TrEMBL record:
Domain annotation DUF4872: ranges: 155-324
Native organism: Nocardia uniformis
Name of the protein in question: BtrH N-terminal domain-containing protein
Span of domain Butirosin biosynthesis protein H N-terminal: 14-142
Chain spans, region Disordered: 323-347
Alphabetical list of Pfam families matching this protein: BtrH_N, DUF4872
Length: 347
């Protein structure tokens, strides 16, 4: 038996926005990947290290699935999330929606997927499933993983059942567009200001602007933090530039989101935020290059320079988020919509 839904299997850069794009286009909502990322308030930062980790981790987005929840809330979508410890029930949770013609999002460990070239455990990976037959599941993953791909049902079951950091219990989800769905245009400013508020006021010093500043201090010690700098440092840099981040630790995606917003809203705060995130994205790419060079050469001066650049990034992103946070300050400002251009002016 074969069940395959006709979908737009457009592969993009980041796994969660790729899967969301598939599900939303099936509901008639077609948004760019940067817009999905921005509406989901996806940008963040975390510096994480503990005695159980082989090497420090730099993260540039909110934790897995928070973006999906944020986006569903912003657009007033019906998000049905199912989790279970039963493999049989987990399959029913997927097969049921597929039988009715609805694609399903899955959170799983990418290590077990047949088509994944890099065998690294990551329990926060998200894909869209649009069909299956007696042997294989048909998925949509990122462009770099092949877009529309397939994996054996056995490997899919292993990936969904995996336990460890960032995993979920056979999590599957569907998205439905109700009749009163909020206009994406109307939810852009709330999404931006919510992201800025969290970034500027992190719960601990490892997050947000303070986390970037902390990373700037600690990255200088990374040669002493590892027994294999030739492997660990270039890998850390690749995770920043590749690994579904869209480049520059997700800053390219947020830069492009803000660029789209400046075409929709006439706002000096938005233009400032876009200019500064353009600068930040370039600086993140520079940091990745310096970390790679330090690992390959063993020269700690590269890490000193990386730390200095991270200090600059912390200041740039702080200024950008301060500007973006002012978008919800409507005191003394006017908001107008030009019917000809649908461009809103926000001072």
């Amino acid at each position: 038996m074969t069940t395959v839904i006709d979908i737009d299997a457009r592969g993009t850069q980041h796994c969660e926005t790729t899967a969301l794009g598939v599900l939303l286009r099936h509901e008639g909502i077609d948004l760019s990947e940067p817009m999905l990322f921005g509406l989901g308030s996806g940008l963040s930062f975390i510096y994480w290290d503990n005695k159980n980790m082989g090497f420090p981790f730099l993260g540039g987005r909110v934790k897995p699935f928070d973006l999906t929840r944020n986006l569903a809330t912003q657009l007033s979508l019906e998000l049905l999330v199912q989790e279970t410890v039963s493999a049989g029930r987990a399959w029913e949770n997927v097969a049921g929606p597929l039988a009715t013609g609805r694609p399903v999002g899955l959170q799983l460990d990418s290590y077990y997927l047949d088509y994944f070239g890099s065998k690294v455990h990551f329990g926060g990976h998200i894909v869209a499933m649009y069909g299956y037959d007696s042997d294989s599941a048909y998925l949509v993953d990122t462009e770099q993983q092949g877009g529309a791909v397939s994996t054996t049902l056995t490997s899919l079951a292993q990936a969904r059942a995996a336990r460890g950091p960032m995993t979920a219990k056979h999590r599957s989800f569907t998205v439905t567009k109700p009749g009163n769905t909020a206009s994406p245009h109307d939810r852009i400013i709330p999404a931006i200001t919510a992201c800025a508020a969290t970034f500027l006021n992190p719960p601990i010093v490892n997050f947000g602007c303070r986390g970037i500043e902390k990373a700037g201090r600690l990255v200088r010690t990374w040669l002493q933090r590892t027994d294999n700098p030739q492997q660990d440092l270039p890998l850390a840099a690749r995770l920043m530039e590749q690994a579904g981040t869209g480049g520059a630790l997700f800053r390219n995606l947020y830069r492009d989101f803000l660029a789209e917003c400046t075409q929709l809203f006439d706002s000096s705060h938005l233009r400032t935020g876009h200019r500064l995130y353009t600068e930040a994205a370039a600086l993140w790419t520079e940091v990745a290059a310096l970390i790679t060079a330090a690992g390959e050469s063993g020269d700690g001066e590269n890490l000193v320079r990386a730390g200095s650049v991270l200090g600059d990034i912390s200041r740039v992103e702080h200024e950008a988020m301060q500007s973006l946070s002012r978008l919800d300050d409507t005191s003394g400002s006017t908001v107008r919509t030009d019917p000809a251009t649908q461009t809103r002016s926000v001072r």
